Amino acid sequence: MTIRFTKMHGLGNDFFVLDLRAQDVELTSERILAWSDRHRGVGFDQLLVLEPATQTGVDFKYRIFNADGSEVEHCGNGARCVARFAQRSSGQSDFVCETARGLLTLSVLDDQQVKVAMGIPTFKPSEIPFVADDAALNYNLPLYPDQASQIKVGALAIGNPHAVVWVSSTAAAPVEELGPILESHPRFPNRVNVGFAERVDEHEINLRVFERGVGETEACGTGACAAAIHGMLTQGLVSPVSVHLPGGTLQIDWQGMGEQVIMTGPATFVYDGELSE
């Protein structure tokens, strides 16, 4: 069996793109784990899958699987990559795609940057999901069972759940120590992506993200949105915000509660390949 795929990345967040509109491949967690192995497989942060649309007026269905085989709701860097992938085969520049959390609008710009309407952020605990009696901009979470150490985090969802921790320096942030603890914190029943953000000025932040099911990545589109939005509400940020990640910069535009958040950034082809199984 030959499986055709494309390797892409969005600011170093790398993807295995699989078009199931043109081939039939059974997806299993074991198969995804084998493909994602960076020593014995292809290696990637996420698997992006295009499938035939199930709704009228929609171009395709878009699914995301982490390297550990778990399926997730949203991936902003991945959305930019599937837009450029779909453009290559169709010649279109504008797309509407289905995701687990609703429809996304994608536009490939003349300079090959991609603009994505990422959805409307929510702070409601039941929608994140997050265990809390009431919605708040910040929560104090115990880090360990003894309750002695706590950390202040913001909690919101941009299609998938995010925790935002503000730090004085992302270079010195304890990402490797606190990322796994917060990712699997019992207050986040579906686990959570954890962003460590540093305010530079009212239009710029630095950000590192520990993604659930993956670990720290070069970039995270929904994480950039979450940090920028939380910063507009709590850190005096003003839209648009340039979010500097290890892999590069994304621009985030948000006009306030109830409005779509717009992300703009690059998407890059690496190679086309085939796997024999």
Care to give the gist of this entry?
The chain has 277 residues and is α+β, with helices and mostly antiparallel strands. Helices cover 17% and strands 40% of the residues.
3D structure, described in words:
This protein is 17% helix and 40% strand. It has helices spanning 29-36, 76-90, 175-183, 221-234; strands at residues 2-10, 13-19, 46-51, 60-66, 71-72, 94-99, 102-108, 114-117, 139-142, 150-157, 161-166, 193-201, 204-211, 215-217, 241-245, 248-254, 261-265, 268-276. It has an 18-stranded mixed beta sheet that branches. A hairpin with a 2-residue loop joins strand 12 and strand 13 (204-211). The chain is globular. The protein starts with a strand and ends with a strand.
